Amino acid sequence: MLIKSVSDDQTEIIQSIMSLCNIKQFDVDLTYANGGFWKNLPQPIMKFDIDPQTSDTVEANSTSIPLPQSCVTSVMFDPPFLTYIKQGREHDSIMGKRFGGYWRYEELEEHYVNTIDEVYRVLNSKGIFVIKCQDIVHNHKMHCTHLNVMKWADKKFRLKDLFILTAKHRIPIPPTEGHKPKVQKHARIHHSYFMVFEKC
C-alpha cells in the first residue's frame, strides 16, 4: 500500500510513521492527556503529562523528562499550539479549555525549543522524534510554526518526513453579541503537521 503524506485521519498518519520508521510501539508520549490520541493504536510504553489524567501517566514537564540520557528510541510530542491576546491565561474558549495554550508566541517558542533539547538528551542515536504542530495567526501576524520547528531542531535533528493532517471539521467561530461581525483578514487554518525527525 502506498503511504501518502496527506490525510484527514490522524490515526492513519501515525500508523504510516510507525511503518516507515519501523516502530511497533512508541517508547514515550510527552503529552499523553487522556490517551485519546492512541485510541486505535498501540499504547506508548511510557506516558508523561504536565497534568496527568490517567493513573498510569507520570507527571512531568516535557522540558524536564525523568529519564536518563540516550535511553529511548521514539518520542511523540503533541503540544498546545494556541496563543491568546485579549483574554487572560484562564481562557474560556472551547479550544482553550480542551487543549490549553500560551499567552504569547514567545512562550510557545520557549516550550518547543527546551523540549527539543530535552528530547535530544533522552533519545538514542538515530532515534525518532515526532512533533505535531500547527501554524497560527497571533496578533495579526502569521507564524509558520512548522518552519520554526525545523529551524529550532536543525542542529540536533534531521527532518525525515512531514505529514499534513487536514481537518474534517472545525469548531465554528461564535458570533460576538452586540458587536458587528468580524471582518476576516486571514485564511482559517484547516491543517496541521506531523514532523518526523531523526536524531543526528
Describe the protein.
The chain is α/β, with parallel strands linked by helices and 200 residues long. It has a domain at 6-81 and 106-131 and 144-168 and 188-199: Vaccinia Virus protein VP39 (Rossmann fold, 3-Layer(aba) Sandwich). 22% of the residues lie in helices and 26% in strands. It has helices at residues 10-20, 94-99, 105-122, 145-153, and strands at 6-7, 28-29, 46-49, 58-59, 72-77, 123-133, 136-138, 141-143, 157-166, 191-199. The strands form two sheets. The protein has an eight-stranded mixed β-sheet. The chain has a two-stranded antiparallel sheet with strand order 7-8. The longest helix has 18 residues, at 105-122. The chain is globular, with a radius of gyration of 17 Å. The relative contact order is 0.17.
List its salient traits.
10 strands; single chain; globular; 200 residues; 4 helices; alpha/beta; eight-stranded mixed sheet; Rossmann fold
Strand and helix layout:
Elements: E1 6-7, H1 10-20, E2 28-29, E3 46-49, E4 58-59, E5 72-77, H2 94-99, H3 105-122, E6 123-133, E7 136-138, E8 141-143, H4 145-153, E9 157-166, E10 191-199
Parallel strand pairs: 1-9, 2-3, 2-5, 3-4, 5-6
Antiparallel strand pairs: 6-10, 7-8, 9-10
Helix pairs in contact: 3-4
What is the makeup of the main sheet? 8 strands, mixed
Counting helices, strands and paired strands, the structural category is alpha/beta
Work out the strand percent: 25-35%
Distance between the termini: 29 Å
Strand order of the largest sheet: 1-9-10-6-5-2-3-4
Can you identify the CATH class of the domain at 6-81 and 106-131 and 144-168 and 188-199?
A: Alpha Beta
Number of beta strands: 10
Order of helices and strands: EHEEEEHHEEEHEE
Second rung of CATH, namely the architecture of the domain at 6-81 and 106-131 and 144-168 and 188-199: 3-Layer(aba) Sandwich
Helical amount: 10-25%
| Rg from alpha-carbon coordinates | 17 Å
| Unreliable parts | 85-89, 93-99
Number of helices: 4
Shape: globular
Q: What is the fold-level CATH name, i.e. the topology of the domain at 6-81 and 106-131 and 144-168 and 188-199?
A: Rossmann fold
Mean pLDDT: 87
Q: Say which CATH homologous superfamily of the domain at 6-81 and 106-131 and 144-168 and 188-199 is assigned.
A: Vaccinia Virus protein VP39
